[in-house]
């Protein structure tokens, strides 16, 4: 039953990811991206990581996508109805195929998927995801966390400047 559910969610995620890049309307593309984010949150729930699923829904499917849709509406992006050149499409398909092959080789030939680190599965279940994530984020990864907040602040200031007609 779990495998069937995984396959259904995977199919929905793949279709919505394809819709993100093929939709001509930017709002429809953003809605398809929200669906992809919800599928990712479902994967986190299936991996027994409810905190990550909640963060995925609140931060990405909620706040980030609202910011993107707000920016699309503010900039008044028009849909370009011109046809793309066939050689550009062919080049994109070939590049995507080689990227897929490269990703599959990395997944199957590397040790990236092996469990490493100081925390075992039993320790995570006993202590909890939230406490371990908070401890790591505010001790070992404090500088990247603060740099990310500065980058988000710069993005918000840039969006406000772009939205204004006269500064």
How many H/I helical runs?
7
Structural class: mainly alpha
Mean pLDDT: 80
Report the end-to-end length measured between terminal Cα atoms.
Answer: 58 Å
CATH superfamily of the largest domain: NADH-ubiquinone/plastoquinone oxidoreductase chain 6, subunit NuoJ
Number of beta strands = 0
What's the domain count?
3
Residue windows where pLDDT falls under 50 for at least 5 positions: none
Largest sheet, strands/sense/barrel: none
> Helicity level, as a percent range?
over 70%
Radius of gyration, in angstroms, nearest whole number: 20 Å
SSE string, helix = H, strand = E?
A: HHHHHHH
Do you know the CATH architecture of the largest domain?
Up-down Bundle
Q: In the CATH scheme, what's the topology name of the largest domain?
A: Four Helix Bundle (Hemerythrin (Met), subunit A)
Secondary-structure map:
Layout: H1 2-22, H2 26-46, H3 50-75, H4 86-109, H5 121-127, H6 129-139, H7 142-163
Helix pairs in contact: 1-2, 2-3
Commentary on this structure:
With 167 residues, the chain is mainly α. The chain folds into three domains: 1-82, Up-down Bundle (Four Helix Bundle (Hemerythrin (Met), subunit A)), CATH 1.20.120; 86-114; 120-167, no CATH class. Helices cover 79% and strands 0% of the residues. The chain has helices spanning 2-22, 26-46, 50-75, 86-109, 121-127, 129-139, 142-163. The relative contact order is 0.07.
């Amino acid at each position: 039953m779990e495998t069937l559910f995984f396959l259904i969610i995977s199919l929905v995620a793949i279709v919505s990811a394809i819709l993100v890049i093929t939709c001509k309307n930017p709002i429809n593309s953003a809605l398809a991206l929200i669906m992809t984010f919800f599928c990712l949150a479902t994967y986190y729930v299936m991996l027994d990581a409810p905190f990550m699923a909640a963060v995925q829904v609140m931060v990405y499917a909620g706040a980030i996508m609202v910011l993107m849709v707000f920016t699309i509406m503010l900039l008044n992006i028009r849909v370009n109805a011109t046809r793309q050149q066939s050689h550009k499409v062919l080049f994109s398909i070939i590049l995507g195929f080689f990227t897929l092959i490269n990703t599959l080789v990395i997944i199957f030939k590397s040790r990236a998927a092996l469990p490493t680190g100081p925390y075992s599965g039993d320790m995570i279940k006993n202590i909890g995801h939230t406490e371990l994530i908070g401890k790591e984020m505010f001790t070992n990864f404090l500088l990247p966390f603060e740099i990310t907040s500065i980058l988000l602040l710069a993005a918000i200031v840039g969006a406000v400047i772009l939205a204004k007609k006269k500064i």
